[in-house]
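Title: Comparing notes on inverse folding

I've been comparing how different people in this forum approach sequence design from structure. To keep things fair, I'm posting one structure and asking everyone to reply with a full sequence. Here's the target:
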């Protein structure tokens, strides 16, 4: 009789058993089938290597994987706070873990930072003359293997890149959640990782706005000189243009942040024009539209129902092409004076995936202290958060339906 070693793991929202086979007394690899039973499903996945079969069994409620790409300092953290709020509960660092962990965990969502897959620490990058944006400073094989494991419902021991010390710290345990978000510089760089994503977003901050933001932050808060800020931006630009920026062509949604067109020659970056570029034909995702789907519309809502101080607010919507693909583009230029009046704008938008009338406005008011809450960055981040919730629910419903069909 053959002996089989079984490891049973209990992640947050799925469970797995792994069985390694040994030879029987006759010298044959005897097949063992280990099934994991839940109220909803039975799933068995088999793999083989070096003539030793491994049976991995997981529940079908596997994580939905979301990718968020952007340069550093472009609002990824704020976006993640809005997203996890839509699903309920604040995202917090792992309890009892490394105080310098980059991971955030809520009731339903786990967010990991892809900086944790740096293969070189800060000194190592300096010695080799590469930036963190350079693929040579990152371990894409490990990134792929671990994201795939989580998507298959299997816990991982993920590395930690310590942003304080610049060193690679001991790994931390990550269990599969309902929603698994990978955010950072390279979520769509490697095709293997890109193919694992159920939905992807790119935050595209124009050079003018990025420069204005960095000046505001680094000069006011950190005491950096204007010359050092310019030098820092210029040093990163070649690698950003080569490795980060091209990823936006693969994104299902792009939030593009530009200088306002309402104020001539504005360079302060305080009033913004924000475009939500939504790819057509994405499974489980229907683009948001203004008034009439597919039409080209320009709308200035200022008047009796919306308070607008200088320079006002302008919305536009219409079909377009982006890297040769059909998209719908919703644009907001300007900023809100009173967030409670956002309900008027919300009432003219369709396909928002809200649970009740006014949910977008409620979310914006709830986080009115977040950066961008008075302009299109906060509005579109909130909308995408609601769309991701809807996408998750559709994926889960489809999986459940497939299981019921398979059982019939």
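Reply #1:
Here's my take.
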């Amino acid at each position: 009789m053959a002996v089989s070693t079984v490891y049973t793991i209990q992640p947050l929202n799925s469970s797995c058993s792994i069985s390694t086979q040994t030879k029987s007394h006759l010298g044959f690899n005897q097949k063992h089938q280990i099934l994991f039973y839940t109220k909803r499903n039975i799933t068995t996945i088999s793999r083989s290597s070096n003539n030793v079969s491994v049976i991995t069994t997981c529940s079908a409620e596997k994580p939905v994987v979301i990718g968020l790409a952007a340069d550093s300092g472009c609002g990824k953290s704020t976006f993640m706070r809005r997203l996890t709020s839509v699903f309920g509960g604040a995202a917090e660092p792992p309890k009892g873990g490394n105080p310098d962990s980059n991971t955030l965990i809520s009731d339903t969502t786990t967010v990991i930072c892809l900086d944790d897959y740096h293969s070189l620490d800060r000194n190592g990058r300096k010695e080799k003359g590469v930036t963190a944006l350079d693929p040579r400073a990152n371990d894409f094989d490990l990134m792929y293997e671990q994201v795939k494991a989580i998507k298959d419902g299997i816990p991982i021991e993920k590395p930690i890149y310590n942003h304080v010390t610049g060193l690679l710290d001991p790994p931390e345990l990550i269990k599969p959640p309902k929603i698994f978000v990978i955010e950072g510089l390279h979520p769509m760089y490697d095709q293997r990782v890109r193919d694992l994503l159920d939905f992807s977003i790119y935050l595209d901050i124009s050079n003018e706005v990025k420069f204005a933001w960095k000046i505001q932050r680094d000069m006011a808060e950190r005491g950096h000189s204007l010359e050092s800020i310019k030098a820092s931006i210029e040093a990163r630009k070649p690698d950003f243009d080569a490795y980060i920026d091209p990823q936006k062509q693969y994104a299902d949604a792009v939030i593009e942040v530009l200088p306002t067109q309402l104020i001539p020659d504005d360079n302060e970056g305080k009033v913004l024009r924000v475009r939500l570029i939504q790819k057509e034909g994405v499974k489980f995702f229907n683009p948001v539209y203004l008034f009439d789907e597919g039409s080209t519309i320009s709308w200035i809502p200022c008047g009796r129902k919306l308070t607008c101080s200088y320079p006002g607010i302008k919305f536009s919507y219409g079909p377009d092409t982006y890297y040769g693909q059909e998209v719908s583009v919703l644009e907001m230029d300007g900023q809100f004076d009173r967030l409670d009046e956002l309900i008027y704008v919300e009432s003219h938008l369709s396909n928002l995936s809200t649970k009740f009338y006014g949910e977008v406005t409620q979310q914006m008011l709830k986080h009115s202290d977040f950066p961008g809450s008075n302009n299109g960055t906060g509005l579109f981040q909130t909308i995408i958060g609601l769309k991701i919730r809807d996408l998750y629910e559709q994926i889960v419903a489809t999986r459940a339906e497939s299981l019921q069909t398979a059982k019939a």
